[in-house]
Amino acid sequence: MYSTFQLAKKYLRYYLTASNGQGHGIHSPFVFDFITQVLTDKKTYNCYREIEAIRKQLKQNNTVIEVEDFGAGSGKIKSNQRVVKAIASSSLKQPKYAQLLFRMVQYYKPKLVLELGTSLGVTTAYLANGNVAANVYTCEGATQIAAIAQHHFNDLSIKNISIITGDFATTLTSLLQTTGTIDFAFIDGNHRKEPTLQYFQQLLEHSDNNTILVFDDIHWSAGMEEAWAAIQHHPAVTLTIDLFFIGIVCLNKDIKASQHFVIKY
pLDDT of 236-262, one tens digit each? Predict the structure, then answer.
């Protein structure tokens, strides 16, 4: 992964060159609608307070757990014995982005949502609250992390989440065989080039014209940037939005020419 200094330089370049995030001068109807209806929505929704209270608890949790790590691992945590609050500090998606995912699900109303990388379940809770009528499947490699996430789903009385535990290399294939078309997916699992591209290919086979894919940490490393570039140039991809920490992918064939946007957020 990039060092903190390298990432800061990249973020500064992004911030200085990205579109202003207000919709001005954006000629894509989809992107203009996304900016004005989703990205810049400043309302505080009811679930925000409850989920952020869970985040606060996790950041104060001194429990030590065993973690099976099938992915690129944490850049800050090296041992398989980890303290919950350390996982929460290094792995949970910032409220700004987790709440954006909530608003995307709320606005686009996907019926089937997939998350690769449950972590402690904070982002999953936001996805599930975005559309309580959706079926949300979330995949987590580490058994004890999945158990903590399930505990908090119970506390929040969230009923529309199913956790699949185990290595994505085996669990994702069998899951996709049973779910049918994925309407919305958040890929926050193995932060390496080849696995990310493999997940993308698998999801393509279970996508349709309205599917939206969101990739986390697209600038986390040189490998992830290469994966993001390959996804952008795939013939099935018609539109992408780079928000630096996440990348959004649309497969809508009604968009005749591929369009790629970098938007400040």
Answer: 999 999 999 999 999 998 887 789 999
